[in-house]
Amino acid sequence: MLTGLDRQAPDRLTLSAAANAAATAQAASLDRRLGLPVPASQVAERLADPVTGLIVDEVRDLDPLGQPIGISRFDPSGQLVSAVQLGFVAPATTVMTTAAVMSRATAVAASAGVTVSGAATTTPRAAGGWLVRWVRTIAGVPVPGDGVSVQLAGDGSFHGVVRTEHPLAAPPVALLSEAQARTLAGARLDAWFTGALHGQATISSLALAWVAPNDSFDDPLPTAPAGTLRLAWVVRVTSSGALADRFAGLELAFDAGDGTPLGGDVLE
Amino acid sequence: MAVTVIAALIALGGAARPTLAVDQASVDSNVSAFRPPCVGFVDSHPSQMLSLATAGLRSLGYTVSAYSGAAFNHASVLARTAGDASFYVHSHGDEYWNSAAQRRYNGFREDSGDCNQAVIFSPEIAAARAGRVSNLVVISTCHNADPASTLPGAFGIARTKAQTGASHFYLGYAGIAYDNDEQAFEKVFWSALKSLSVGEAFDLAADQTFSHPLDADWWGTYTWSGLPGGVSGCTRCLVAGEQ
Q1: Tell me, what's the pLDDT at B233?
Q2: How confident is the model at residue B15 (pLDDT cuts 50, 70, 90)?
Q3: CA angle, corner A8, sides to A7 and A13, nearest 5?
Q4: Tally of domains within chain B
Q5: What is the pTM (predicted TM-score) of this model?
Q6: Largest CA distance in chain B
Q7: How far is B67 from chain A (nearest CA, A)?
Q8: pLDDT band at A139 (very low <50, low <70, confident <90, very high)
Q9: Where are the domains of chain A?
Q10: How do residues B95-152 score in pLDDT, each as one tens digit?
Q11: Which terminus of chain A has a lower count of CB atoms within 10 Å, N or C?
Q12: Residue B60, in any domain of the structure
């Protein structure tokens, strides 16, 4: 899992001279294709996610003072993982249309050599600029933590791109029905919210999705390698009454094959 | 609200208002709302984010005190904030109705170690800080970086963005934010501060694939190092002479 690549306790691996040269060449090529300024120098290092073991080669583009102006990351096969341009960009006075943003982001993805598919969503960012996101789907089922995201700065220039693709576990032979998933979630809510709170957490939607099992609710993690996604029923829960003072909602994930709880998320 | 503020000042013991320590930082995380008896499950994120923030601020050189449970309460936050150069909180946040003022203010809920958790409103923080500017403020809640949030101003940080020129930075989430995404963002942010400015760390943290449409915002100075000490000792400012 590339999200949360840990730099506080990094597994810093030795980057061979050849790998260093390859990574910096990839970064320079990416800069050219995206039309970015030529850096005064570059430094590269190999980082490993201590949780998942995934490895990236990170290249920092530096200005003449040695300060970073961009960071790009590549997997060991040379595939782009992410790139971001650093520096505050004030919003432009002219407003870009959604169509223009989409067109620009699509062009950025193509220039970066990142393949996109399916429909994208375009969202203005609070900090300025836009996020255009293509969520990965497998046979029509979304993989919410995977896909391609392109960020444009407030003036429409390139700001960032990230491509995330986790390994998937084998899909279950037989799927639990939505009704079975609803029953599982209902039982969990009945156990969690008793007395006056009973009924203040209600199911608002259920959908299949590929998710990363997590320990959000102290559920035991599966024995599969960390970062491997499982097909799950994701049950959205909305709170009301006094319970809404503690959290706004929950997501409960259950293995779509055997109903094993796979954690979920809390919307505080 | 006025009563609450007075109560908080009384809680200071009538002593002189503490002076702003250049390296004092408080880290608060609401754990009680997300574990029994308040709910039937144990949410592991609040304590993990508390640890990340504590380590992150310590790594920058702040003298950090971390609070959760009963120690993270309305009175203690207001008592400490006057001396805090930097502050982190993870809790339930919103633009809450303030009945005394008959309007909404941004804020966040205390922990207090029980299930009846009062809101700490932005004007209460503003009154306790009396205009003192903060260095680094990270508000890990929903809604406290919405465009009209009143919380940055309470910490003395204007809702403006600048490339250089000062040593303060407010980070929060716009709209709703799920725990997993917040933790992923903050994990990268804190660790990136080891070698990047606050704005750069924000950009790196935002360049991830989140499971939900997480949206974060910041106000302050992009190139500030995040290091304590205000305008002095800036060893990692990006532009020479703009410390």
Answers
A1: 34
A2: very low
A3: 50
A4: 1
A5: 0.91
A6: 55
A7: 18
A8: very high
A9: 11-164, 178-267
A10: 999 999 999 999 999 999 999 999 999 999 999 999 999 999 999 999 999 999 999 9
A11: N
A12: yes
Q: Tokens 């997300």 sit at which residue?
A: B34
pLDDT over threshold 80, residue A125? yes
Most B CBs within 10 A among A69, A88, A121, hence the mutation to make, goes to A88
Query: Residue B116 belongs to what domain range?
Result: 2-221
Residue whose tokens read 């716009």: B174
Is residue B235 in some structural domain?
A: no
Residue B11 has pLDDT above 80, yes or no: no
Give the integer Cα–Cα distance in Å for B139 and B213.
18
User: What DSSP letter does each residue of A212-234 carry, written as one string?
Assistant: ----TT-PPPPSSPTT-BEEEEE
> Where would I find the beta strands (DSSP E) of B53-177?
63-67, 86-90, 93-98, 103-109, 119-121, 136-140, 161-162, 169-173
Q: Is the ipTM of this complex over 0.90?
A: yes
What is the side-by-side strand order in the sheet with B103-109? Answer: B93-98, B103-109, B119-121
Q: Is the pLDDT of residue A6 over 60?
A: no
- A250/A266 Cα distance (integer angstroms): 5
Cβ–Cβ contact A267 with B under 8 A: yes
B118 touches chain A (CB under 8 A): no
By the 8 A CB rule, do B92 and B108 touch? yes
What are the chain A neighbours of B218 within 8 Å (beta carbons)? 127
DSSP state of A86: -
Distance separating alpha carbons of residues B175 and B146, to the nearest angstrom? 6
* CB pair distance less than 8 Å for B206 and A160: yes
Within a domain: B241 = no
What's the pLDDT score for residue B239?
33
The DSSP output letter for A129 is S
* Chain A contact present for B202, CB below 8 A: yes
Q: What percent of chain A has pLDDT over 90?
A: 78
Q: Is B74 on the interface with A (CB under 8 A)?
A: no
**Residue B165, domain CATH:** 3.40.50
A164 beta partners: A147
